[in-house]
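Researcher: Re-running this chain for the archive, since the previous output was lost when a drive failed. Same request as before.
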Amino acid sequence: VRGPISAENANDPEWIDGVDDSIGISLSEVGTATLSNVQVDGMAWAGVVSDDSGLQAEGLSIRNTLGYGVILQGGTSGFTALEIADTYQGLRGAPSIAFAARDAVWSADGFTLERSERYGIVSQAGSVTIDDLTAQTGGDAALWVGGANTLQLGGENTIDDMRFAGAVVVDSQAVDIRNLVVSNIGLSTRNIGAGGLFAMLALGDGVHL
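Model: Regenerated structure tokens:
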């Protein structure tokens, strides 16, 4: 599945509004969907979107996406040998996310994440199981999990050359992180404060809990 986005044109103003070829594969309330050795390249909004569906994917490769590589909204999904590379933010203002999940139960066995202009994985609520994560080069955290029932990170995991933090986990239960090597995390400046008092803080953590 191919669309119009590439490294050369990802920052063009023409992509700010909606365009054709926005989503590579879209599922909505599908009981079971199986993807095997599928390549999605150059989508202008998202590579794969699964809404309240049961998605099973093996050998899925998503590249050159403007916005999101994968979006999961509810449902139960499993990935084997998942690759997401070159996720761009462009000029829309909203941060890009290579893999975004909300209220989903999902797992990945072998997840390679490369060159995400902003966030790598952002998962809110639901449950997360990842074995063998390799995250390389991004503009923000490689893994951000919030409000999860469970988070299990196992196998052999490496995070390198990100910003702000390698992994961030907040307001989550049953967190189990094993065999994780984090290196080369650059500083990122954020506004913090409350009650009218604000300050700029530069952070560069390995794992932030």
